Protein backbone atom coordinates (compact mmCIF):
# COMPACT_ATOMS: atom_id res chain seq x y z
CA UNK A 1 0.00 0.00 0.00
CA UNK A 2 1.42 3.39 -1.06
CA UNK A 3 1.01 6.71 0.61
CA UNK A 4 -0.85 9.26 -1.52
CA UNK A 5 1.42 11.49 -3.57
CA UNK A 6 -0.50 14.67 -2.72
CA UNK A 7 1.14 14.81 0.71
CA UNK A 8 3.18 17.99 1.17
CA UNK A 9 6.58 16.89 2.42
CA UNK A 10 9.67 18.77 3.55
CA UNK A 11 12.97 16.90 3.80
CA UNK A 12 15.68 18.55 5.91
CA UNK A 13 19.04 17.05 4.95
CA UNK A 14 22.41 18.73 4.50
CA UNK A 15 24.14 15.95 2.51
CA UNK A 16 23.42 15.91 -1.23
CA UNK A 17 23.91 12.13 -1.57
CA UNK A 18 21.44 11.44 1.25
CA UNK A 19 18.95 13.89 -0.29
CA UNK A 20 19.20 11.91 -3.53
CA UNK A 21 18.63 8.61 -1.70
CA UNK A 22 15.61 9.99 0.13
CA UNK A 23 14.20 11.41 -3.09
CA UNK A 24 14.40 7.95 -4.67
CA UNK A 25 12.88 6.24 -1.63
CA UNK A 26 10.03 8.74 -1.39
CA UNK A 27 9.25 8.41 -5.11
CA UNK A 28 9.12 4.63 -4.74
CA UNK A 29 6.44 4.90 -2.05
CA UNK A 30 4.34 7.41 -3.96
CA UNK A 31 5.70 10.78 -2.80
CA UNK A 32 6.94 12.56 -5.92
CA UNK A 33 6.99 16.24 -5.05
CA UNK A 34 8.88 16.58 -1.76
CA UNK A 35 10.65 19.86 -1.09
CA UNK A 36 14.14 20.03 0.39
CA UNK A 37 16.00 22.22 2.85
CA UNK A 38 19.75 21.90 3.39
CA UNK A 39 19.86 23.43 6.89
CA UNK A 40 17.72 24.19 9.91
CA UNK A 41 17.68 27.87 8.92
CA UNK A 42 16.40 27.07 5.43
CA UNK A 43 13.82 24.67 6.90
CA UNK A 44 12.56 27.28 9.34
CA UNK A 45 12.08 29.78 6.51
CA UNK A 46 10.02 27.26 4.53
CA UNK A 47 7.99 26.23 7.59
CA UNK A 48 7.10 29.83 8.36
CA UNK A 49 5.81 30.30 4.83
CA UNK A 50 4.04 27.00 4.24
CA UNK A 51 2.34 24.16 6.07
CA UNK A 52 3.56 20.61 5.48
CA UNK A 53 1.92 17.28 6.24
CA UNK A 54 5.26 15.58 6.84
CA UNK A 55 8.76 16.66 7.85
CA UNK A 56 11.62 14.17 7.44
CA UNK A 57 14.60 15.60 9.27
CA UNK A 58 18.16 14.34 9.53
CA UNK A 59 19.57 14.68 13.03
CA UNK A 60 23.04 15.82 11.94
CA UNK A 61 22.71 18.91 9.75
CA UNK A 62 26.33 20.00 9.76
CA UNK A 63 27.26 23.54 10.76
CA UNK A 64 24.55 25.32 12.70
CA UNK A 65 21.50 23.80 14.36
CA UNK A 66 20.98 20.06 14.38
CA UNK A 67 17.61 18.38 13.92
CA UNK A 68 16.96 18.29 17.65
CA UNK A 69 17.43 22.04 18.07
CA UNK A 70 15.21 22.67 15.04
CA UNK A 71 12.46 20.53 16.57
CA UNK A 72 12.86 22.32 19.89
CA UNK A 73 12.36 25.70 18.21
CA UNK A 74 9.38 24.41 16.21
CA UNK A 75 7.66 23.17 19.37
CA UNK A 76 8.57 26.13 21.56
CA UNK A 77 7.31 28.73 19.09
CA UNK A 78 4.31 26.90 17.66
CA UNK A 79 5.66 26.89 14.10
CA UNK A 80 4.15 23.52 13.18
CA UNK A 81 0.62 22.35 14.08
CA UNK A 82 -0.21 19.12 15.87
CA UNK A 83 -1.20 17.40 12.64
CA UNK A 84 2.22 17.80 11.01
CA UNK A 85 4.11 14.50 11.27
CA UNK A 86 7.77 15.01 12.22
CA UNK A 87 10.14 12.05 11.76
CA UNK A 88 13.78 12.22 12.85
CA UNK A 89 16.31 10.26 10.80
CA UNK A 90 19.71 9.66 12.33
CA UNK A 91 22.77 7.45 12.28
CA UNK A 92 23.58 8.74 15.76
CA UNK A 93 23.75 5.88 18.22
CA UNK A 94 25.08 7.90 21.11
CA UNK A 95 22.33 7.26 23.64
CA UNK A 96 22.45 10.73 25.16
CA UNK A 97 21.69 12.33 21.82
CA UNK A 98 18.98 9.84 20.91
CA UNK A 99 17.38 10.43 24.32
CA UNK A 100 17.45 14.17 23.68
CA UNK A 101 15.73 13.74 20.35
CA UNK A 102 13.10 11.40 21.77
CA UNK A 103 12.16 13.67 24.65
CA UNK A 104 11.31 16.41 22.16
CA UNK A 105 8.50 14.18 20.89
CA UNK A 106 8.99 13.54 17.19
CA UNK A 107 6.22 11.30 15.88
CA UNK A 108 8.91 8.72 15.18
CA UNK A 109 12.65 8.42 14.73
CA UNK A 110 14.41 6.03 12.38
CA UNK A 111 18.01 4.93 12.62
CA UNK A 112 20.01 4.70 9.41
CA UNK A 113 20.57 2.76 7.28
CA UNK A 114 16.92 2.72 6.24
CA UNK A 115 15.13 1.32 3.21
CA UNK A 116 12.00 2.33 1.32
CA UNK A 117 9.78 -0.36 2.81
CA UNK A 118 10.76 0.52 6.39
CA UNK A 119 10.08 4.18 5.64
CA UNK A 120 6.72 3.39 4.03
CA UNK A 121 5.53 1.25 6.95
CA UNK A 122 6.61 3.76 9.58
CA UNK A 123 5.03 6.70 7.74
CA UNK A 124 1.81 4.84 7.05
CA UNK A 125 1.51 3.96 10.72
CA UNK A 126 2.17 7.56 11.79
CA UNK A 127 -0.44 8.98 9.40
CA UNK A 128 -3.07 6.38 10.25
CA UNK A 129 -2.72 7.35 13.88
CA UNK A 130 -2.75 11.05 13.00
CA UNK A 131 -6.06 10.71 11.18
CA UNK A 132 -7.73 9.29 14.25
CA UNK A 133 -6.67 12.30 16.33
CA UNK A 134 -7.20 14.91 13.61
CA UNK A 135 -10.83 15.85 14.47
CA UNK A 136 -9.86 16.51 18.08
CA UNK A 137 -6.93 18.68 17.02
CA UNK A 138 -9.16 20.64 14.64
CA UNK A 139 -11.62 21.32 17.44
CA UNK A 140 -8.77 22.43 19.67
CA UNK A 141 -7.59 24.88 17.01
CA UNK A 142 -11.12 26.19 16.72
CA UNK A 143 -11.10 26.90 20.44
CA UNK A 144 -13.43 24.08 21.42
CA UNK A 145 -11.65 21.75 23.86
CA UNK A 146 -15.04 20.64 25.23
CA UNK A 147 -15.98 19.42 21.75
CA UNK A 148 -12.59 17.71 21.50
CA UNK A 149 -13.27 15.92 24.79
CA UNK A 150 -16.61 14.70 23.43
CA UNK A 151 -14.84 13.44 20.30
CA UNK A 152 -12.26 11.55 22.38
CA UNK A 153 -15.02 9.77 24.29
CA UNK A 154 -16.54 8.53 21.01
CA UNK A 155 -13.19 7.72 19.39
CA UNK A 156 -12.16 5.56 22.34
CA UNK A 157 -14.91 3.07 21.50
CA UNK A 158 -14.21 3.14 17.76
CA UNK A 159 -10.42 2.85 18.01
CA UNK A 160 -9.56 0.53 20.90
CA UNK A 161 -6.02 0.09 19.51
CA UNK A 162 -5.36 3.72 20.48
CA UNK A 163 -7.37 3.73 23.71
CA UNK A 164 -4.48 4.78 25.93
CA UNK A 165 -3.42 7.67 23.69
CA UNK A 166 -7.01 8.91 23.39
CA UNK A 167 -7.38 8.78 27.16
CA UNK A 168 -4.16 10.74 27.39
CA UNK A 169 -5.40 13.46 25.03
CA UNK A 170 -8.74 13.62 26.84
CA UNK A 171 -6.95 14.01 30.17
CA UNK A 172 -4.77 16.80 28.75
CA UNK A 173 -7.88 18.56 27.47
CA UNK A 174 -9.60 18.34 30.86
CA UNK A 175 -6.49 19.78 32.49
CA UNK A 176 -6.32 22.58 29.90
CA UNK A 177 -9.74 23.88 31.00
CA UNK A 178 -9.10 23.56 34.71
CA UNK A 179 -10.93 20.26 35.20
CA UNK A 180 -8.07 18.80 37.20
CA UNK A 181 -10.11 16.18 39.04
CA UNK A 182 -11.44 14.74 35.78
CA UNK A 183 -7.92 14.66 34.34
CA UNK A 184 -6.54 12.99 37.45
CA UNK A 185 -9.24 10.33 37.28
CA UNK A 186 -8.31 9.49 33.68
CA UNK A 187 -4.61 9.22 34.42
CA UNK A 188 -5.38 6.90 37.33
CA UNK A 189 -7.56 4.85 34.97
CA UNK A 190 -4.63 4.55 32.54
CA UNK A 191 -2.39 3.45 35.40
CA UNK A 192 -4.94 1.02 36.77
CA UNK A 193 -3.74 -1.93 34.69
CA UNK A 194 0.00 -1.26 34.50
CA UNK A 195 2.74 1.23 35.21
CA UNK A 196 3.23 3.67 32.31
CA UNK A 197 5.99 6.25 32.91
CA UNK A 198 4.43 9.11 30.93
CA UNK A 199 1.08 8.64 32.72
CA UNK A 200 2.82 8.78 36.09
CA UNK A 201 4.57 11.94 34.93
CA UNK A 202 1.32 13.61 33.85
CA UNK A 203 -0.37 12.60 37.11
CA UNK A 204 2.50 14.17 39.03
CA UNK A 205 2.15 17.33 36.91
CA UNK A 206 -1.51 17.58 37.90
CA UNK A 207 -0.67 17.08 41.55
CA UNK A 208 1.84 19.94 41.32
CA UNK A 209 -0.91 22.18 39.92
CA UNK A 210 -3.10 21.11 42.86
CA UNK A 211 -0.17 21.90 45.20
CA UNK A 212 -0.11 18.31 46.42
CA UNK A 213 3.65 18.48 46.39
CA UNK A 214 4.42 15.53 48.66
CA UNK A 215 2.35 13.10 46.57
CA UNK A 216 3.83 14.48 43.35
CA UNK A 217 7.39 14.21 44.64
CA UNK A 218 6.87 10.62 45.70
CA UNK A 219 5.80 9.73 42.16
CA UNK A 220 8.68 11.60 40.54
CA UNK A 221 11.38 10.24 42.82
CA UNK A 222 10.11 6.75 42.05
CA UNK A 223 10.08 7.50 38.33
CA UNK A 224 13.69 8.67 38.10
CA UNK A 225 14.79 5.74 40.27
CA UNK A 226 13.17 3.22 37.91
CA UNK A 227 13.80 5.10 34.65
CA UNK A 228 17.05 7.00 35.04
CA UNK A 229 16.88 8.44 31.51
CA UNK A 230 13.31 9.76 31.75
CA UNK A 231 14.46 13.36 31.46
CA UNK A 232 11.03 15.02 31.64
CA UNK A 233 10.58 13.52 35.13
CA UNK A 234 13.80 15.18 36.29
CA UNK A 235 12.64 18.52 34.91
CA UNK A 236 9.28 18.38 36.68
CA UNK A 237 10.99 17.26 39.89
CA UNK A 238 13.35 20.25 39.61
CA UNK A 239 10.37 22.57 39.06
CA UNK A 240 8.61 21.14 42.12
CA UNK A 241 11.68 21.57 44.31
CA UNK A 242 12.17 25.11 43.08
CA UNK A 243 8.52 25.99 43.77
CA UNK A 244 8.77 24.55 47.27
CA UNK A 245 11.81 26.67 48.16
CA UNK A 246 14.61 24.16 47.59
CA UNK A 247 16.71 25.70 44.81
CA UNK A 248 19.83 23.67 45.70
CA UNK A 249 17.95 20.40 45.26
CA UNK A 250 16.31 21.71 42.10
CA UNK A 251 19.69 22.60 40.63
CA UNK A 252 21.15 19.18 41.50
CA UNK A 253 18.16 17.51 39.84
CA UNK A 254 18.57 19.56 36.66
CA UNK A 255 22.31 18.91 36.67
CA UNK A 256 21.62 15.17 36.72
CA UNK A 257 19.26 15.57 33.77
CA UNK A 258 21.81 17.60 31.83
CA UNK A 259 24.46 14.92 32.36
CA UNK A 260 22.17 12.30 30.82
CA UNK A 261 20.83 14.53 28.04
CA UNK A 262 23.13 17.54 27.58
CA UNK A 263 21.85 18.96 24.31
CA UNK A 264 18.59 20.73 25.05
CA UNK A 265 18.92 24.51 25.23
CA UNK A 266 15.93 25.21 27.48
CA UNK A 267 17.27 22.87 30.17
CA UNK A 268 20.77 24.35 30.02
CA UNK A 269 19.28 27.83 30.32
CA UNK A 270 17.26 26.82 33.39
CA UNK A 271 20.30 25.10 34.90
CA UNK A 272 22.41 28.21 34.40
CA UNK A 273 19.79 30.48 35.95
CA UNK A 274 19.33 28.19 38.95
CA UNK A 275 23.09 27.86 39.42
CA UNK A 276 23.30 31.63 39.64
CA UNK A 277 20.51 31.71 42.22
CA UNK A 278 22.26 29.23 44.53
CA UNK A 279 25.64 30.93 44.30
CA UNK A 280 27.41 28.65 41.83
CA UNK A 281 28.60 31.13 39.20
CA UNK A 282 31.16 28.75 37.70
CA UNK A 283 28.47 26.16 36.99
CA UNK A 284 26.20 28.91 35.68
CA UNK A 285 28.90 30.19 33.34
CA UNK A 286 29.52 26.73 31.93
CA UNK A 287 25.83 26.12 31.18
CA UNK A 288 25.08 29.61 29.89
CA UNK A 289 28.16 29.79 27.66
CA UNK A 290 26.88 26.65 25.93
CA UNK A 291 23.41 28.20 25.59
CA UNK A 292 24.91 31.30 23.97
CA UNK A 293 27.03 29.15 21.66
CA UNK A 294 24.08 27.05 20.53
CA UNK A 295 21.89 30.12 20.20
CA UNK A 296 24.10 31.60 17.49
CA UNK A 297 22.54 29.16 15.04
CA UNK A 298 18.92 29.81 16.01
CA UNK A 299 16.74 32.64 14.83
CA UNK A 300 15.09 32.45 18.25
CA UNK A 301 18.26 33.22 20.19
CA UNK A 302 17.52 35.22 23.32
CA UNK A 303 19.65 38.20 24.43
CA UNK A 304 18.76 37.40 28.04
CA UNK A 305 21.22 34.51 27.85
CA UNK A 306 24.03 37.04 27.48
CA UNK A 307 22.77 38.95 30.53
CA UNK A 308 22.79 35.79 32.65
CA UNK A 309 26.26 34.92 31.35
CA UNK A 310 27.50 38.40 32.29
CA UNK A 311 26.04 37.94 35.80
CA UNK A 312 27.89 34.64 36.16
CA UNK A 313 31.17 36.16 34.94
CA UNK A 314 30.94 39.20 37.19
CA UNK A 315 30.20 36.97 40.19
CA UNK A 316 33.66 35.47 39.52
CA UNK A 317 35.20 38.92 38.96
CA UNK A 318 35.76 38.13 35.27
CA UNK A 319 35.14 41.70 34.12
CA UNK A 320 37.06 41.33 30.86
CA UNK A 321 35.09 38.20 29.94
CA UNK A 322 31.86 40.05 30.74
CA UNK A 323 32.89 42.87 28.42
CA UNK A 324 33.51 40.29 25.70
CA UNK A 325 30.04 38.83 26.26
CA UNK A 326 28.51 42.31 25.94
CA UNK A 327 30.43 42.88 22.71
CA UNK A 328 29.11 39.58 21.37
CA UNK A 329 25.57 40.58 22.34
CA UNK A 330 26.03 43.90 20.55
CA UNK A 331 27.26 42.18 17.38
CA UNK A 332 24.57 39.51 17.28
CA UNK A 333 21.44 41.17 18.69
CA UNK A 334 22.37 44.69 19.70
CA UNK A 335 20.12 46.34 17.11
CA UNK A 336 16.99 44.50 18.23
CA UNK A 337 14.80 46.33 20.78
CA UNK A 338 15.13 43.56 23.36
CA UNK A 339 18.83 43.29 22.59
CA UNK A 340 19.27 47.00 23.31
CA UNK A 341 17.54 46.66 26.67
CA UNK A 342 19.62 43.62 27.59
CA UNK A 343 22.79 45.45 26.56
CA UNK A 344 21.83 48.34 28.85
CA UNK A 345 21.20 45.92 31.72
CA UNK A 346 24.60 44.27 31.11
CA UNK A 347 26.34 47.64 31.08
CA UNK A 348 24.61 48.60 34.34
CA UNK A 349 25.80 45.35 35.93
CA UNK A 350 29.40 45.98 34.89
CA UNK A 351 29.33 49.61 36.10
CA UNK A 352 27.77 48.56 39.41
CA UNK A 353 30.46 45.87 39.78
CA UNK A 354 33.09 48.60 39.23
CA UNK A 355 31.35 50.87 41.79
CA UNK A 356 30.61 53.48 39.11
CA UNK A 357 27.20 54.54 40.39
CA UNK A 358 26.62 57.40 37.95
CA UNK A 359 27.16 55.23 34.87
CA UNK A 360 25.22 52.35 36.41
CA UNK A 361 22.25 54.66 37.03
CA UNK A 362 22.41 56.03 33.49
CA UNK A 363 22.39 52.51 32.03
CA UNK A 364 19.51 51.44 34.30
CA UNK A 365 17.48 54.49 33.29
CA UNK A 366 18.01 53.59 29.64
CA UNK A 367 16.77 50.07 30.32
CA UNK A 368 13.82 51.12 32.50
CA UNK A 369 12.67 53.73 29.96
CA UNK A 370 12.40 51.15 27.19
CA UNK A 371 8.68 50.91 27.98
CA UNK A 372 6.91 48.05 26.30
CA UNK A 373 10.19 46.33 25.46
CA UNK A 374 10.83 45.72 29.16
CA UNK A 375 7.68 43.57 29.13
CA UNK A 376 9.42 41.25 26.67
CA UNK A 377 11.95 40.35 29.36
CA UNK A 378 11.40 37.30 31.53
CA UNK A 379 9.90 37.82 34.96
CA UNK A 380 13.20 36.84 36.57
CA UNK A 381 15.21 39.42 34.63
CA UNK A 382 12.62 42.12 35.28
CA UNK A 383 12.93 41.34 38.98
CA UNK A 384 16.72 41.58 38.69
CA UNK A 385 16.28 44.97 37.03
CA UNK A 386 14.09 46.04 39.97
CA UNK A 387 16.74 44.86 42.43
CA UNK A 388 19.45 46.75 40.54
CA UNK A 389 17.39 49.96 40.63
CA UNK A 390 16.87 49.65 44.39
CA UNK A 391 20.58 48.92 44.87
CA UNK A 392 21.49 52.08 42.97
CA UNK A 393 19.06 54.28 44.97
CA UNK A 394 16.59 54.56 42.08
CA UNK A 395 13.43 53.97 44.10
CA UNK A 396 11.09 55.78 41.71
CA UNK A 397 12.16 53.72 38.70
CA UNK A 398 12.06 50.54 40.77
CA UNK A 399 8.50 51.26 41.95
CA UNK A 400 7.38 51.91 38.37
CA UNK A 401 8.94 48.62 37.26
CA UNK A 402 7.21 46.74 40.09
CA UNK A 403 3.86 48.26 39.12
CA UNK A 404 4.34 47.38 35.47
CA UNK A 405 5.44 43.84 36.32
CA UNK A 406 2.37 43.17 38.46
CA UNK A 407 0.12 44.63 35.75
CA UNK A 408 1.58 42.53 32.97
CA UNK A 409 2.44 39.29 34.81
CA UNK A 410 0.05 38.80 37.69
CA UNK A 411 0.23 35.04 38.07
CA UNK A 412 0.50 33.70 41.60
CA UNK A 413 4.21 32.85 41.48
CA UNK A 414 5.21 36.22 40.04
CA UNK A 415 3.29 38.03 42.78
CA UNK A 416 4.92 35.88 45.48
CA UNK A 417 8.47 36.26 44.19
CA UNK A 418 8.06 40.01 43.62
CA UNK A 419 6.82 40.40 47.19
CA UNK A 420 9.93 38.53 48.32
CA UNK A 421 12.18 40.92 46.37
CA UNK A 422 10.66 43.88 48.19
CA UNK A 423 10.49 42.15 51.57
CA UNK A 424 14.23 41.45 51.38
CA UNK A 425 14.78 45.19 51.21
CA UNK A 426 12.32 46.01 53.98
CA UNK A 427 9.78 47.32 51.47
CA UNK A 428 6.87 44.97 52.11
CA UNK A 429 4.60 47.97 52.59
CA UNK A 430 5.40 49.17 49.06
CA UNK A 431 4.37 45.81 47.62
CA UNK A 432 1.08 45.97 49.53
CA UNK A 433 0.38 49.50 48.28
CA UNK A 434 1.09 48.63 44.64
CA UNK A 435 -0.98 45.43 44.78
CA UNK A 436 -3.92 47.28 46.36
CA UNK A 437 -3.75 50.01 43.72
CA UNK A 438 -3.78 47.47 40.90
CA UNK A 439 -6.67 45.55 42.47
CA UNK A 440 -8.69 48.78 42.63
CA UNK A 441 -7.86 49.50 38.99
CA UNK A 442 -8.93 45.98 37.94
CA UNK A 443 -12.19 46.21 39.86
CA UNK A 444 -13.02 49.55 38.25
CA UNK A 445 -12.30 48.34 34.72
CA UNK A 446 -14.24 45.10 35.13
CA UNK A 447 -17.21 46.88 36.73
CA UNK A 448 -17.40 49.38 33.88
CA UNK A 449 -17.37 46.61 31.28
CA UNK A 450 -20.02 44.61 33.15
CA UNK A 451 -22.30 47.64 33.45
CA UNK A 452 -22.13 48.26 29.71
CA UNK A 453 -23.01 44.61 29.01
CA UNK A 454 -25.98 44.73 31.42
CA UNK A 455 -27.22 47.85 29.66
CA UNK A 456 -27.13 46.03 26.32
CA UNK A 457 -24.10 47.98 25.06
CA UNK A 458 -22.17 44.92 23.93
CA UNK A 459 -19.93 46.89 21.59
CA UNK A 460 -19.01 49.18 24.46
CA UNK A 461 -18.39 46.26 26.80
CA UNK A 462 -16.00 44.68 24.29
CA UNK A 463 -14.17 47.97 23.73
CA UNK A 464 -13.87 48.56 27.48
CA UNK A 465 -12.63 45.07 28.33
CA UNK A 466 -10.21 44.80 25.41
CA UNK A 467 -8.73 48.11 26.52
CA UNK A 468 -8.43 46.68 30.02
CA UNK A 469 -6.70 43.56 28.65
CA UNK A 470 -4.15 45.77 26.87
CA UNK A 471 -3.50 47.70 30.08
CA UNK A 472 -3.28 44.60 32.26
CA UNK A 473 -2.21 41.79 29.88
CA UNK A 474 -1.05 39.50 32.67
CA UNK A 475 -4.06 39.71 34.96
CA UNK A 476 -6.16 36.51 34.71
CA UNK A 477 -9.28 38.22 36.10
CA UNK A 478 -9.15 40.87 33.39
CA UNK A 479 -8.43 38.31 30.67
CA UNK A 480 -11.40 36.15 31.69
CA UNK A 481 -13.73 39.15 31.69
CA UNK A 482 -12.44 40.37 28.32
CA UNK A 483 -13.10 36.91 26.86
CA UNK A 484 -16.54 36.88 28.45
CA UNK A 485 -17.37 40.28 26.90
CA UNK A 486 -16.48 38.93 23.46
CA UNK A 487 -18.57 35.80 23.99
CA UNK A 488 -21.55 37.79 25.28
CA UNK A 489 -21.32 39.89 22.13
CA UNK A 490 -21.46 36.71 20.02
CA UNK A 491 -24.34 35.39 22.11
CA UNK A 492 -26.42 38.51 21.54
CA UNK A 493 -25.25 39.82 18.15
CA UNK A 494 -24.37 36.66 16.23
CA UNK A 495 -21.27 34.72 15.35
CA UNK A 496 -18.09 36.73 14.74
CA UNK A 497 -14.96 34.84 13.66
CA UNK A 498 -12.60 37.58 14.83
CA UNK A 499 -14.23 37.86 18.25
CA UNK A 500 -14.23 34.08 18.68
CA UNK A 501 -10.54 33.94 17.81
CA UNK A 502 -9.75 36.76 20.23
CA UNK A 503 -11.74 35.07 22.99
CA UNK A 504 -9.91 31.81 22.38
CA UNK A 505 -6.55 33.59 22.62
CA UNK A 506 -7.51 35.36 25.85
CA UNK A 507 -8.71 32.11 27.43
CA UNK A 508 -5.45 30.40 26.47
CA UNK A 509 -3.43 33.25 27.97
CA UNK A 510 -5.47 33.12 31.17
CA UNK A 511 -4.96 29.36 31.33
CA UNK A 512 -1.18 29.75 31.12
CA UNK A 513 -1.24 32.28 33.95
CA UNK A 514 -3.76 30.47 36.14
CA UNK A 515 -4.05 26.82 35.06
CA UNK A 516 -6.10 25.76 38.08
CA UNK A 517 -8.53 28.68 37.91
CA UNK A 518 -12.14 27.51 38.48
CA UNK A 519 -13.43 29.97 35.86
CA UNK A 520 -11.62 28.15 33.06
CA UNK A 521 -14.12 25.34 32.70
CA UNK A 522 -17.18 27.60 32.80
CA UNK A 523 -15.98 30.03 30.15
CA UNK A 524 -14.73 27.21 27.91
CA UNK A 525 -18.08 25.44 28.15
CA UNK A 526 -19.81 28.74 27.30
CA UNK A 527 -17.71 29.03 24.14
CA UNK A 528 -18.50 25.40 23.26
CA UNK A 529 -22.22 26.11 23.64
CA UNK A 530 -21.95 29.07 21.25
CA UNK A 531 -20.00 27.02 18.70
CA UNK A 532 -22.73 24.37 18.75
CA UNK A 533 -25.53 26.93 18.70
CA UNK A 534 -24.23 28.58 15.53
CA UNK A 535 -23.19 25.30 13.89
CA UNK A 536 -19.57 26.36 13.53
CA UNK A 537 -17.35 23.62 12.12
CA UNK A 538 -13.54 23.60 12.11
CA UNK A 539 -13.30 23.67 8.33
CA UNK A 540 -15.22 26.98 8.25
CA UNK A 541 -12.48 28.80 10.12
CA UNK A 542 -9.34 26.88 9.12
CA UNK A 543 -6.85 28.82 7.04
CA UNK A 544 -6.26 25.68 5.01
CA UNK A 545 -8.14 22.38 5.38
CA UNK A 546 -5.91 19.47 6.31
CA UNK A 547 -6.05 16.48 3.98
CA UNK A 548 -6.95 13.10 5.39
CA UNK A 549 -6.74 9.69 3.82
UniProtKB/TrEMBL annotation:
Superkingdom per UniProt: Bacteria
PROSITE patterns tied to this protein: RESPONSE_REGULATORY (PS50110)
Alphabetized Pfam families for the sequence: Response_reg (PF00072), TPR_16 (PF13432)
Annotated CDD domains: REC_TPR
Domain Response regulatory stretches: 8-127
GO biological process: phosphorelay signal transduction system
PANTHER family named among the record's database cross-references: TWO-COMPONENT RESPONSE REGULATOR (PTHR43228), TWO-COMPONENT RESPONSE REGULATOR ARR22 (PTHR43228:SF1)
Protein name, per record: Response regulator
The species this protein was found in: Thauera propionica
Amino acid sequence: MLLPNELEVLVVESQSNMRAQLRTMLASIGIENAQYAVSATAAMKRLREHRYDLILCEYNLGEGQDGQHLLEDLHAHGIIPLDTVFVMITAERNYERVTSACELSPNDYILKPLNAETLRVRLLRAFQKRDIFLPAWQLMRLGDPVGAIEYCRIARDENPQHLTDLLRLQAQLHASIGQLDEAESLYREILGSRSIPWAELELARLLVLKKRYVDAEDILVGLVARHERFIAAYELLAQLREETGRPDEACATLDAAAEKSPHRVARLRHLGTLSLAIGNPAGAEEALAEVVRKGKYSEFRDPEDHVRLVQAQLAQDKVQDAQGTIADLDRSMGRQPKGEVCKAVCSALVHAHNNDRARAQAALKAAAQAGGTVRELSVGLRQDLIKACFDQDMQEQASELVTDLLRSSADERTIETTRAVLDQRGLGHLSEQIEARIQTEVKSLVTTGAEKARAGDFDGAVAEMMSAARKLPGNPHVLFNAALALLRHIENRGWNDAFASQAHGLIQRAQRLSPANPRLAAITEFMHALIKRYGIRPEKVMARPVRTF
